[in-house]
Amino acid sequence: MLDSQVETTQLQDGLKLFSKLKSLKLSGSLIYNSSHLPIEIVRIVHNLERFELRRMLVKEIFPNEKLINVEEYRNIRFEPSDLSLFELPKLKHFWKDDYKSTSSLKNLASLIISGCGILDMLVPSSVSFRNLSKLEVDKCHRLTHLLNPSVARTLVQLKRLVLKDCKRMTTVIAEVVEEGNEEIVFSRLKYLFLEDLSKLTSFHSGKCIIRFPYLDDVTIWTCPKMEVFSLGIISTTNLLVRDLRIHHGIKGSRYGYEDSNYGYEDSKVVEDINGIIRQAWEDIYGIIQQAWEDNYDTGIQYLFTEKNLEENQSDHSSSCVEE
């Protein structure tokens, strides 16, 4: 663990020692006012396989804009297999638009991003994630979508997808008209978890055919505006009803909504995930309506009881005054 507040010039003598470094966790302080990684760190990151960056004010990950035109660093490639970014409140993007090294993520197998509040785009459409197996994103409140279809089609190795608490996210895969409605296949995805996405309306906002041949574990928790999974055809040939869990955000409240099979057999393959999501919403509407009907008269009676009590107390006070 290196502290970014330490004078980075102290690393100069250790560059040879760090030349074979494979894993680095760089933890700083939000009062450390630097928008870029220290130059001495940039010199060694190209060898890293695992890189974690936490609590810094960097605006981009790599490279330092001061080094883009420096011959010594122009051909440096940052190609980790495991990248974790935590609490980077000023992070806007991974690199400047004029830095064309999209190959920097070609070996990435795990990407975790948390607490990057002004990150407004995960990656441009030119990026390929062909080796990515785990993608987790939470508390990135400026993201309105996670991926566009062209990037989603490169996720041929993705096994785990987790999205949580992104307040502006309306869809996971955005609709891009000029790309048409070509098929998207998540050929290895097994686990999908969506939680606390208050504006999410769908997984895909377009009409692309989406296939999940190995998906067998899905949780949709507290996504109150999600009434459809996708507008196109969805294939989930390995997902059983009992492994699809939908919670509408009122579990644990007075009229809590518990897991249900929505009228389907638990061991049956999910053939229409849109239908199950709609049925879940119909169930919750029914619960709310029934709760209102059951308690409407009681509520009115309670109000009249309180009113009568107040009047009686007032009459009693008046009588005492007269006496």
From TrEMBL:
<keyword id="KW-0611">Plant defense</keyword>
<dbReference type="InterPro" id="IPR032675">
    <property type="entry name" value="LRR_dom_sf"/>
</dbReference>
<feature type="domain" description="Disease resistance protein At4g27190-like leucine-rich repeats">
    <location>
        <begin position="9"/>
        <end position="127"/>
    </location>
</feature>
<dbReference type="InterPro" id="IPR050905">
    <property type="entry name" value="Plant_NBS-LRR"/>
</dbReference>
<protein>
    <submittedName>
        <fullName>Probable disease resistance protein At1g61300</fullName>
    </submittedName>
</protein>
<dbReference type="InterPro" id="IPR057135">
    <property type="entry name" value="At4g27190-like_LRR"/>
</dbReference>
<dbReference type="Pfam" id="PF23247">
    <property type="entry name" value="LRR_RPS2"/>
</dbReference>
<feature type="domain" description="Disease resistance protein At4g27190-like leucine-rich repeats">
    <location>
        <begin position="128"/>
        <end position="230"/>
    </location>
</feature>
